[in-house]
Every structure is written in structure tokens, then in C-alpha cells.
Amino acid sequence: xxxxxxxxxxxxxxxxxxxxxxxxxxxxxxxxxxxxxxxxxxxxxxxxxxxxxxxxxxxxxxxxxxxxxxxxxxxxxxxxxxxxxxxxxxxxxxxxxxxxxxxxxxxxxxxxxxxxxxxxxxxxxxxxx
Amino acid sequence: xxxxxxxxxxxxxxxxxxxxxxxxxxxxxxxxxxxxxxxxxxxxxxxxxxxxxxxxxxxxxxxxxxxxxxxxxxxxxxxxxxxxxxxxxxxxxxxxxxxxxxxxxxxxxxxxxxxxxxxxxxxxxxxxxxxxxxxxxxxxxxxxxxxxxxxxxxxxxxxxxxxxxxxxxxxxxxxxxxxxxxxxxxxxxxxxxxxxxxxxxxxxxxxxxxxxxxxxxxxxxxxxxxxxxxxxxxxxxxxxxxxxxxxxxxxxxxxxxxxxxxxxxxxxxxxxxxxxxxxxxxxxxxxxxxxxxxxxxxxxxxxxxxxxxxxxxxxxxxxxxxxxxxxxxxxxxxxxxxxxxxxxxxxxxxxxxxxxxxxxxxxxxxxxxxxxxxxxxxxx
Lengths: 129, 380
Hints:
The complex is a heterodimer of chains A (129) and B (380).
Chain A: H1 2-23, H2 32-45, H3 48-54, H4 63-68, E1 74-84, E2 90-101, E3 104-109, E4 112-118, E5 121-127
Antiparallel strand pairs in A: 1-2, 2-3, 2-4, 4-5
Helix pairs in contact in A: 2-3
Chain B: H1 2-24, E1 30-33, E2 37-40, E3 49-53, E4 59-64, E5 70-76, E6 82-89, E7 93-94, H2 123-126, H3 137-147, E8 151-159, H4 161-164, H5 186-192, H6 229-237, E9 239-245, H7 256-272, E10 276-280, H8 291-308, E11 312-313, H9 315-318, H10 348-351, H11 353-379
Helix pairs in contact in B: 3-11, 5-11, 7-8
């Protein structure tokens, strides 16, 4: 009987631990470097929904411009690697958006970007100054 | 008495000979067509066809439109009767090398007759001239630009690949320009020409009216961090005039409402910098799928120019009589003329959309120089 009660108690505690772990403990879910890279990939692809979801509130109104900027070219992201600068909210990316227009190919190097934490998610907020 | 008679006869013979010699010298105003042409009642394709001018028939140029792209010609019979009187494209004539458009009277007839448009949607585009008179409001913009240390003789271009083309404006900076009969543009060519040598960071292949505000499209070697190509170009070059044309590419990816928002933003930011924005309609081919959309875009341009009282070059209207509307096979880019220098002689503006566009740009700049810059100088 006691053994059965102990087993039940252990299972209950385990379930509680799993539930508490699921609550997240206040840590940001997103990685700013990952967000920056996803943002630039979406920009090259003209993916307005993703751009809108990753833009900071201050720049939300610009989502259409951001999504349409490479609209006249066949654009893709190449060799993109984004790294957070220490604990700061700045992410530096290498690689480029490569844009093809007719027979011409142009490269638009990635830069350093300002990220901001909003509601536990990092958002892309323009080039870092 | 006999001696006086001989003197009289000698003088008469001399006068007659001089008169005959004068008649033998070809007048610079005499010309002929090198292909059979429709002769219209006015300087544009919306005017009715009045007659046909056959190849090689000698006619006299008596009038021109404000540019010189259309001329009124007359054919007079031996008995002095006027046989033919109407308008033809000057680029389809064999012009006398001595002809100077500065010596040809300018007509008051409009460039287009909206009531004769092929469809109602085209009427707004036929209602505005190819080259407008410049609003007095532009003097205030120019003065503001001077206070911001703008350079009067510097111009720039803003646009997509159609403008980034090194054969747009840039040939004005190269030696060997041949203006042909368009001699009246010489002073303005000398005034603005050199400034077209410097490349514009706000005119790039694949750029659209969104990208011109996107710092990512700015040249990182020339522009400051976070600066848009537009603001970068206006800051570094400090032009007095910006020739702006988007549309041929934008029409593929946006609707006219979105386009209108972007053009307004372009105009607002250019005016805020004390730079006179010059908009331009773009040529379009009626057989291509986006013809209706192109008309809507061009109509928005006409509305915006009227609202802001800024100059608008009506390239769409001027290119109507050209083969394939002055366009390459892709329906976007202007047909080239095969030389790096500015050529307005030898019918180039009638066969090459790119040459016509340069001619119109220079004509517009000439209008601005004479009515805004010179007046402002006189006032100052």
C-alpha cells in the first residue's frame, strides 16, 4: 500500500515538475540572432506575414515596404550567419541578399541590426546605429 | 541716254542673277519625308489625319511644338496655291543641317486632344502636355534649396533600371553631343551636362519605389548608416532638380493605390530637401498584359503632379508615335540608339525611346532653368 502511495506521489510530483517547466520561468523564447536571420530571409523572399510578425512595434507600419523592397528582383539569402554581440540587443550578420534582375546580379551585404525584446520575443528593429 | 539704259539693264541682270542664286540655295526650312507619312491637323496622334505626305516631296517647315518633335509643314504649288498643310513627326523628315528650331515659331496647339482618346481611361494622359509650364511654387523650393547650399547646375536621377541606364542623362556629360536642330537646348546642356557624369545611388537595377527608401539598397561606401538611397543621393550631390521615374517595373508587383503612396512619399521627401522633383509618366505597350495597370499608374502620376504643382514630363504621350512606343521587346526599357554620346540629330528621337527621353529631360531642364533659375537670379 505504502509502496503504491509512494509511486503515486512520485508520479504526481513529476507531472507537476513537467507543468512548471512548461511555464517557462520568464526566459525569452526567441534567440535574437535567429530572429534576425529569419527576418532577413523573409525580406529576401518578400514574405510579408513573417516580416510583420518579427518587426518591432516602432516599425510595424513599415512592414509592407520591407516586404516589397526586393519585389522587382529574384532575391535569395546566401551564407547568412547572425551572431548576438555579447548580451547586447545588437546582432551582427554576415552573408548577403543576392538579387538577380535580368542578366545582372547584385549583392546586398547583411549588417548589424537592432533587436528589441517585446513580450518575451525578440523583434527586428532596423540597422544598428 | 544710251549709257543710262545700259546701266539699267546691267543692274536688272545683276538683280535677277542674285535672285536666282538665292532661290537655288536650299532654305533650311525646306525638308522632305523619307517615308510616306500621315499629315495630321495638330502636333500629336490624337489629331485627325488630314493628308498624306509622300516620300521626297519638298515641304516647308512653318511651325513646331514646344519641343520640336512635331513640325507643321506646308507644300505650295508653283502658282502659289497651298496644297498641303499639316503636322508630322520631325524625326521622320530629312532635316536640313542648317535648320535651327530656335528660328521656328512655336504653336499654341496642345499636344493632345483628350476628346479624341481611344478610350475614356486615356483622357487624363492626353490632357497634360509633354513638357509643362513650371509652377511659380517651384521658385520657393529652389530658394529653399539655395539656403540649404544646393548647387543650381547639379541634377540627379531617381528610379529603376530604366533610369540607372548609363545612356539616360549621362551622355549629356560626354563630349561630341549633336543637338541637330534642337539648338535652343545648347545653353541648358552646357549648364547641367557635367553634373550627369556622377552616378546616382538612387537609380539602380531592380530598385522600386519601396526600395528607394530602404537603407539596405544604399551604397554602403557612399551613404551613412541607416540612410536611404534617396536621402543619401540628395545629401551627397545637393542637386537643384531630381528627375524621378518609377513605374515600368513597379507595375508588375503593386497596385496603383500602393504606387501612389510611394510616389507621394518620394515627392514629399524631395521637396523637404529643397529639391525640385520632376515626375515622368512611363511608356507602355497596349499589347502587353499590364497596359490597363500602366495607364492607372500614369494617371496617378498626373494627379500627384497637379496636386503638388510639380513638373511632369509626359513621356507616355511623347512616345505614342514611336515604333513600339519607344520600347525594347521587354516592354519596360527604352530602345537605345547605339552611341554613347547625346544624339538628337538624324531622327534619333523618332526611333529611339532613350534618345527621346533624353531630349524631353533636357527640354524640361531648359524650362526650369529659364523660368525658375534665371527669374530667381533676376529677382535676387
